[in-house]
Write a structure and sequence with these properties.
The strands form 6 sheets. Strands 1-23-22-21-20 form a 5-stranded mixed β-sheet, with no helix packed on it. Strands 15, 16, 17, 18 and 19 form a 5-stranded antiparallel β-sheet that branches. A 4-stranded antiparallel β-sheet has the order 2-26-25-24, with no helix packed on it. 2% of the residues lie in helices and 48% in strands. The longest helix is centred in the last third of the chain and has 6 residues, at 272-277. The protein starts with 8 loop residues before the first strand and ends in a 20-residue tail after the last strand. By secondary structure, it is an all-beta fold. The chain has a single domain, classed as Neuraminidase. It has 1 helix and 26 strands. A hairpin with a 4-residue loop joins strand 9 (86-91) and strand 10. The chain has one helix at residues 272-277; strands spanning 9-11, 17-19, 27-33, 38-43, 48-53, 59-63, 70-73, 79-83, 86-91, 96-101, 110-117, 123-129, 137-142, 149-155, 158-163, 169-174, 179-186, 191-192, 196-200, 206-212, 218-223, 227-231, 237-242, 248-254, 260-265, 284-287.
Amino acid sequence: MNHITASPTLDTPHALQRVGTQTDILGECPLWDDTAQCLYWVDIRLPAIRRLCHATGEVNTWPMPELVGSIALVDDGRLLVALPSQIALFDPAKGALSAFVPSLPMPEGHRFNDGRCDARGRFWVGSMHNITRAPEGTLFCLEGAGPLKAVRQGICIPNSLAFSPSGDTLYFADSLHYRIYAHPYAPESGRMGEAQVFAESAPPAFPDGSAVDAEGFVWNAEFNGGRLLRYAPDGSIDRVIALPVDRPTCCAFGGPDLDILFITSTSQNMTEAERQAHPMAGALMAIHPGVRGLPEPRFALNGPRTE
C-alpha cells in the first residue's frame, strides 16, 4: 500500500505535446491499435469515438447514438463499444455500428465507464450512475457473446482497470474510495480474487484510468491531481509527472515502439476562468516517458482464447 506522502522522482512536462486540435468534453479510454498503427479513444459526452492516425496525424471522429463509456479492440479488427443500452461492434472502415449484446439490464440513469480486456480476450467493464455517483454501479465481465456477468456491485465510479504483464494481477479502482486495488487474477478461468489496497490518493484527487508498462509498473492519471503517477509493483510511487491540466482521465502506451504515453483529459463543467487558466483541458496529450508499454489485448469474439 502506498500513501501520497512518498518522495518520488518529480518530472516536469517539458516534452509533453498536445495532439490534434480537438477538445474533448470527457476524453477517456485511449487504446493503441498496433495493427492499424492508430490510437482510438472516446469522448463520453460528445458522444463519439475518435481515432488518431500515427502516420498522418489525422483525427477522425464518429458520433455515437448514446454515451459511450469505453471501447476495446476486437480480434477481427473492429471495436467493442460499451453503450448504456447495448454492447455493440463498430467497424471503422465502414463507420457502422452493429448490435452484439443487445438489451442490457442497465438501470435508468446508468452508463458504462472504464473497460479493458484481459490477455485471453475477456472484456471487463464497470457501470455507474451518470449523475449522482451513488454506490449503485457494477463491475461486469463479458466472455464472447455473453451474457454479461456481474462480478462486483456497490461501485461509485469504476476506473483503473488494468492487468499485470503476467496477467496474474487485476488492478481496479472505485475512484471515490481514493484507492487502487490489486486483485489476484486467474487468466485461465477469469476468476478475480479479493481486493488488496495497492495505492491511495489524497482527496480531492482520485485515481482515474491506468496503463501498465513492460516493466510491470502502473501509470495512473490522477483526476483533480493534475499529474500522472508511476507506481512500482509494490505500490510505491516511482515517478510523478506534472500535467498542464487538473483533470487527466486516462493514459495508454502507443506509437510504433510503444514508447509514447498518450493522455486524455476533460473540459466538462469548467468556468470560463478555469478554461483560460487551463487551455489544454480536454486535449489529447503525449509524452515520451522513457519506458515502453505492452500491446493492448483484443476481445475474443468467440470466447476466451486458450493460449
